[in-house]
Design brief:
The complex is a heterodimer of chains A (about 260) and B (about 425). Chain A is α/β, with parallel strands linked by helices. Chain A has a domain of about 170 residues: P-loop containing nucleotide triphosphate hydrolases (Rossmann fold, 3-Layer(aba) Sandwich). Chain A contains ten helices and twelve strands. In chain A, the strands form three sheets. Chain A has a six-stranded mixed beta sheet with strand order 6-9-10-3-11-12, sandwiched between helices. A four-stranded antiparallel beta sheet of chain A has the order 2-1-4-5. Chain A has a two-stranded antiparallel ribbon with strand order 7-8. In chain A, helix 2 packs across helix 3 and helix 6 runs parallel beside helix 7. Chain A is globular and about 60 Å long. The two termini of chain A are about 35 Å apart. By secondary structure, chain B is of the alpha/beta class. Chain B has one domain. In chain B, the strands form two sheets. A ten-stranded mixed beta sheet of chain B has the order 2-1-5-7-9-11-13-15-17-19, with helices on one face. Chain B has a nine-stranded mixed beta sheet with strand order 3-4-6-8-10-12-14-16-18. In chain B, strand 1 and strand 2 form a beta hairpin. The chains are: A alpha/beta (about 260), B alpha/beta (about 425). At the A-B interface, helix 2, strand 7 and helix 3 of A face helix 6 and helix 7 of B. Chain B: It comes from Pseudothioclava arenosa. Chain B: Pfam families: SUFBD_core. Chain B: This is Fe-S cluster assembly protein SufD. Chain A: Keywords: ATP-binding, Nucleotide-binding.
Amino acid sequence: MLEIKNLHVKLEEEDKVILKGVNLTVETGKVHAIMGPNGSGKSTLSYVLSGRDGYEVTDGSALLEGEELLEMEPEERAAAGLFLAFQYPVEIPGVGNMTFLRTALNAQRKARGQDELSAGEFLKVVREKAKTLKIDADMLKRPVNVGFSGGEKKRNEILQMAMLEPKMCILDETDSGLDVDAMRLVADGVNALRDAGRSFLVITHYQRLLDHIKPDVVHIMADGRIIQTGGPELALEVEQNGYADILKAHGLTEAV
Amino acid sequence: MGAAVQKSTLEARLEGLSTTGFAPAARKDALARLVAMGLPGRRDEYWRWTNPADFIAATPVPAQAFDDSDEAPVFEATDRVKLVFVDGVFDADASDDLALAGVEITRLAEAPDLNWASGLYGTLEVAGQTPVARPLAALNTAAATDGLLIRATAKAEKPINLIYIHRSEVSDPILHHVIRLEEGAELTILENGPAGARFNKVMEVDVAKGARFHHVRVQGRDHERRAATAIFARVAEEALFKSFTLTVNGVLTRNECVIDMVGDDAVAHVAGAALGDGASDAFLHDDTVFVTHGAERGESRQVFKKVLKHGAVGTFQGKILVKPGAQKTDGYQISQSLLLDDDSQFLAKPELEIYADDVKCSHGSTTGAIDETALFYLRSRGVPMEEARGLLVLSFLADAIDEIEDEGLRDDIVGRLEAWLNRHRD
């Protein structure tokens, strides 16, 4: 599904190298997790994959089902099936959540050569999906993320994911700022979308989200590289011992 | 110097205008006031950013009528009484009957003694000349050729739509409306159309106790519009005044709004959304607002938003004056611009002048660009660049548009905004 090869990235405006040769392959239908200390480049990886400005790719490639993502505009990546659940979802006053969802969905359908959904069809689908995420009619009507609590914003991200039905979902620290109940709700939403044809890349600091969204593969990222890959037990190890031992084994010290 | 006596600018401007007819005393007075104050110039504080030359020239810059037949007429979906002026001349054939339950409508030109409005014509305009002189409004009172006297005695059955059609390349209409809402009455006035090559319009609105006045106006899409308009409103106890203006395109538009809140618990909101693209023609849009709180517990809001690109210029001069004794006043003013490129310009002068000690007044003014983070968020969801920018422009304008209470009218305005954005993609 997603094949990242030797990805090198620096900041556009300064001479700061953030990713120093990331290699990562996410197979179709699998859930991969990336853990790592602060400043390891996890969020940068998610932004670079989704096409945010401010980064310069100096080497490497990222293929989504064989197509080069790095040459596409953000909206083209979305239409190709990539979705990033933001760590900090953006508030957009004055634009109704429904209008936003419908505009996004129809734009993607159009880009794929599909017919746009009628207002009626759209409403039916959105209501159904919102219900399972405990998103009420009021939240759907309100402006995008405006006045939403941390939990509501993250649920709203998952609702967008459910509506857009991407093939490759990246969750960037979706657990940050969530209490246990909110996290479970979000995890249930994600788990409901797990599917043989859909892959996930779950970026997180902590093991606890992975208790709810069980990964197939766990990667440890540090200093702009994937330094270790293993099964779910690797996340448990980090939870118990922290990153120090793993970093040390790779000749790195923990960033303070 | 030669023997020929040069005419003054004022004499040249007044040439051919009639200052006799209805309301002779008010006109004579207005003319005398105009002579005393003179026409506006660049040195006047309130004309520093907007060159009045085209307004004070003897003749208008010729302007072709704009063909907007590719778009459904604004307000078409609203059941309303249509009153049509063509180049400033009332067109009875194109208009609906002047009959509307709860409302008396009379043409100014057909009411020499002005009926109920005899003590009102020019009165609010005169009051609005202090402390800031507004010569173009005095010119209007002195030389208006027509207009409507509209008096609501109850809740009007439907809105009245004043439609100003522009046909002649050299038309130079001066229209003056006097609107009075009696106690407890309710009325909505809709306005649209360019009216002429150059347009000078004054609307005096007297809102009596507990009455509710709504005004929604659309200016555009005529590129060559040169319009100077002024609203003078008096808002009595527990009365409500709400005015919203959408302006798109236009070489030169000056909209003044002077509101005097004379009764306790009065509410006055005035809002505007302006979109200018200087690519095809110049665009200058000027909102000049003056709200006076003269009684207790008044609530006023000024919400002005401008979206500017390709060298378009927007200006805002807004003032809140709280008189002594106007305690518990709640005054709010915001003026914001969204600059879509580096060539455009927004000039703002927010002013507060407060002589009461127990009031809440706030004002803010911002100039910014499209929020890149929000733009990326939308694009990451598959919304193409231009559509995403459009959504963010609507997002920026939302506070102003929300000042329109009627949902149907609001949707109408949003639809026109979307159409404008689609036509003006880069």
